[in-house]
Amino acid sequence: MANNVYGIVKPSLLDVANDVDIFYHYRPSRTSEDPSFTSFKKIDNVASILKISETESSETSDLRLPGMYNLSLPVSIFGTIGIYTLYIVPKEKYYTIKDVGTLAAYPDIRGIILDVNETESSDQTLFRNDNLTGYRIEYFSYAGNGLKRQDYHRIITSNSLCEPVTQALNSGYVNSNGYRYNESGTLCFITLTPSTSPGFKANSAPYIGVPNQKIAITNTKFDPVCVEVSIVNHDIETVSWMLEGEQTRNYENGRITTYSPTGIYKQFEMSTVKDTYTQTPIAEIKLDVSGNIDTSLDINDFKNI
Question: Is the whole model's pTM more than 0.70, yes or no?
Fold first, then answer.
């Protein structure tokens, strides 16, 4: 047993509408090659799909179960028989770098500048008081026919509202504009890691972006989750009813009725096809008549005979 070794894992509390994106892919079967079933679709109302779990404990007024969420599958989306792949990921928010500058008070600290006025009103609180600390930034660049996501990222270490300054800066970063913190500013100064030069290569500043570059800011509250869901006609219970459940066969109308614990589950109508001339039976037909169930064939009536 090791001494003085411990770990802490804190489950995430999500604002589902603002922190989560859910995409789903549907195909009728695993062997389907129809090109119309090749793309993922985004679910707009995520809050209706993912809901925080609750506990029956009365020890605290907050009855939520931290980090545990219930997944709901509405019939409007998942009502067709087939295979669904759900991809649950942290929500990405897309912005454009306004500038890459330094702090006036600490000229060796670099950061990227975003214009808060160019963000959605619901996101503007993220740019205050280090609310973005721990978020991930990924970069895009133009390649080929459009934007391409780069294979590197940076982690946000701080953020605050700021404003530009006009005085000359004594900074090691050439052509860097200066900024100072101001809670009334409309710009946001974001510091990242890594952002300083390594000791063995002092003249090499890590890349943190360039002006007018498109970026994605993503929360790191949970890892992406991929879930496969199969929507089928039968489950193990209904198969058991058909194989082992109680049945009756009515010789007057040829109906075979299978019962579940709550009543009639399935009905088939049996009939015999005979040769027109010889009247010799040549086939027996079993037709599913569950759409027109004869409810008078209650098994309890037969048990009481």
Answer: yes
